[in-house]
Amino acid sequence: MRKLSYKIFTIILVIILTMAPLDALAVEGTMGYSAGISVVNPIEKSEYQYSEMCFLTGVPIKLSGTLTIKKTDKNDVVTATYTYRLNNAEADVTMNRVLIYTTTRETKANGQVTESTKLSRVPTEVINIGGTAYRLIDASFTQSMITDPKAAINYHTGEFSEKKVYAIGTGTTRDTVTVTLSGRTYAYDQYWSSTETQRINMMVETDLRSTNPPVQWGGAAEIVVSSATLHQVNYSENEPTYISFDGGYVKKQWMESTLDYTARFPEFDKNGLPTDVLKTYNSTESLSTQIELSRLMVPDIKHLNGHWAEEPISILFGLEILPGTGENFRVGKYLTRREFVGILMNALKEIPADTDVRVSSTTNSRRTSNKNVPEISPFKDVEPGDLYYNEIKKAYQKGITSGNGNGNFGPNIYITNAEAIKMIVSALGLENLAPYPAATTPFTDNDSIPAYARNAASVAAILGIIEPDYMGRFNPSNRLTSENAANLMYDLINYMGKELIKDYRDRIIDF
User: Same domain for 259 and 342?
Assistant: First the structure.
């Protein structure tokens, strides 16, 4: 188990997480697929503040405005309409674009979901740059995604490619610009944070047949776009002396997106014709939503004043992960399997749904009533109505726990470190990070770790959720105390909100 000593942060405790769902998930396509970035518009539903770079002229131009998304899900076929209204007044550029995608889903035998996305028809798009119209005359798009849904996190990855051909102006001799994109998407969705990052290669090829002689030139851009939901918890100390509590935690939540590009295009002479000299452009653009503030409950844990776990316990009560208001919290109390699952399921939460989707069905089958269907417990020793029954049932349904054998859950048995870590890593769905078929953990008591929990212990150590004690041990058979469980839940949330996003966003952007 983790070396149960907590580093106290005196003024500011930063946890990047998403306490309440913002209006959309990162992976649901809120950035679109045109190498742009977006954040939720707080005023209009399904409308996003949006920016992208236009490279059609060989000089990058930032376009900003709105992206409106409307989706209909009918029997696992999603029709999505993306409407862009962008401009750059200083550069005298406007852009109007409407794209309609059709996505077909298929659930595989192992529970993974594949998606195939194509254009429903040729999009409409007109870009006016300094009085010259660039009108879309041909386009193709294809995307293939796979989602691996786990108990606490949905993991996504995929590839997409796009080709657009624009006619320049209205002359009888057709000048064209062809833009090709190829990109990869990495994303995850969960309650505590979500992010989508796209790595995109863009090629621009211009064919000017109206010039004498005809001119051809081209360039390329490497673009990384990323969108994420973020949350921060700060401690705020009260200034008045005569107040019922010394201070408390304030949560801040917002969404931010980043666009980073490097582009290489020819320099142009005074007549606007390309030269043999290549010029490199690079910049970083960003968008963010307004920060929303809300106070967490201040628990009654004055009896823990100065305890090493005081701060994580206080935060977990404020987040309503630990039940109650704090006065009955006792350090050194062993947790039962029932109590631990109740706290764990409070920490994991449900993955928010995409609010841009309207679900409909053509199925006309009659609805059947479940009013008279008896509730069946997944375990022989846990009954409907028992304390944390719903949480235990949900943990079973999500594959977090299968009980302790012979159809029993063992609700009143004290939970061990090994059992707790096994459930946590099962919820994350990351046991495949351990070497096959069995891992060797970094703990000095590796051989004492039960076979069923060894991979989980190895992964939890890699993720930083647990650390060895002062003698390098995991102590798999030790009973989990209330304060150790609180610290473990805090570290789990910290990983899901702060650390995971580094791999999906920061490392790729800085690559």
Answer: no
Q: Which domain holds residue 239?
A: 12-292
Query: Which is nearest to 224 in space by CA: 279, 278, 185, 178?
Result: 185
Last residue in a domain, options 272, 292, 312:
292
Q: What is the pLDDT of residue 171?
A: 66
306 Cα distance to chain centroid: 35
Name the domain boundary from 236, 271, 292: 292
Cβ neighbours around 100 below 10 Å, total: 16
Residues 325 and 255 occupy one common structural domain? no
Q: Are strands 77-88 and 36-40 parallel, antiparallel or unpaired?
A: unpaired
Q: Which residue has the higher pLDDT, 133 or 498?
A: 133
* pLDDT confidence band for 13 (50 / 70 / 90): very low
Provide the domain count of the chain: 2
365: in domain: no
Beta bridge partners of 202: 181, 221
Q: For the beta carbon of residue 241, count every other beta carbon within 10 angstroms.
A: 5
Query: What pLDDT is recorded for position 360?
Result: 65
Domain identity same for 228 and 343: no
Predicted structure pTM score: 0.88
Total Cβ atoms within 10 A of residue 444:
13
pLDDT per residue over 164-185, tens digit each? 999 998 766 689 999 999 999 9
Share the mean pLDDT of the chain. Answer: 88
293 CB neighbour count, 10 Å cutoff: 10
* pLDDT band at 351; cut points 50, 70, 90: confident
Tell me how far CA of residue 25 lies from CA of 46, 191, 196, 454, in angstroms.
Answer: 12, 10, 9, 34
243: exposed, middle or buried (Cβ count in 10 Å: 0-12, 13-18, 19+): exposed
Q: Are 65 and 191 in a shared domain?
A: yes
Query: Could you tell me the pLDDT band of residue 43, with boundaries at 50, 70 and 90?
Result: low
Asked if residue 3 is part of any domain, the answer here is no
Give CA–CA dist 340/418, Å, rounded.
Answer: 13
Q: Which helix (H) or strand (E) holds 51?
A: strand 47-54
